[in-house]
Amino acid sequence: KLNLRGNFFLTEVKNPVVSVTIAMSPNLISRRRQNVGKTRARGVELDAEYAPSARLKFSASYLFTESRVAEFPANPELVGKFLPQVARQQFAFQTIYRPTQKLTLSLQGRISGAQFDDDLNTLKLRLFATLDVFASYKIYRKLEIFTAVENLFDNRYDVGLTPNRTVAMPRFARVGLRFDLEKR
Per-residue pLDDT tens for 30-75? Predict the structure, then answer.
């Protein structure tokens, strides 16, 4: 009924391509893709899954990662800076409920810590949280109707600040039919 997993990691990448800031003004940021000497990511990932019954399952995961520039002979000023677009902490959870063989209901959420949008670590993207819901109903053995709402609370979180603020997709709803072509 309960599964727990965890791992520690250390990853070093030599000569990765990174967008490096060349010049900055209030209205324009100039960047060039360059090979950085080495980046290093280390952290821990924890996952838990609990199924109190065949109809109900809960899962959650947590990720802590510290991703930094480890070497950059062409620009030593960037050594020790966080890599852009990599949050230090992330948490996700999901609940799946199947009250009948035909009906599936799901709720999932994600929380992401603050992260930087730039290599200089000056443009900070705020932490955010989103919640999604999903429902499907099997009409026939291989035909299913579904609906989903992503970003249920219409959270307008930052995805870019270079130099103008760009926000994530607003609430998004979809409805569809899924047909399974696989032979059984």
Answer: 889 989 999 999 999 999 999 999 999 999 999 999 999 999 998 8
| CB distance 39 to 72 below 8 Å | no
How many residues comprise the chain? 184
CB-CB contact of 107 with 131 (8 Å): yes
Q: Nearest to residue 60, comparing CAs of 88, 94, 89?
A: 94
Residue with tokens 């399974």, as numbered in its chain: 180
DSSP E strands, the chain: 2-14, 17-24, 29-35, 38-53, 56-71, 89-97, 103-112, 115-116, 124-125, 128-140, 143-150, 158-160, 166-167, 172-179
Whole-number Cα distances in Å, 34 to 17, 51, 123, 171:
5, 47, 20, 36
| Predicted structure pTM score | 0.84
User: Among all chains, which residue has been given the structure tokens 């709402």?
Assistant: 149
Nearest in space to 54 (alpha carbons), one of 96, 105, 108: 96
Q: Identify which of 9, 83, 76 has the alpha carbon closest to the alpha carbon of residue 39.
A: 83
Q: What is the spatial distance between Cα 153 and Cα 160, in angstroms, rounded to a whole number? A: 20
Which H, E and C letters describe 160-184, residue by residue? Answer: ECCCCCEECCCCEEEEEEEECCCCC
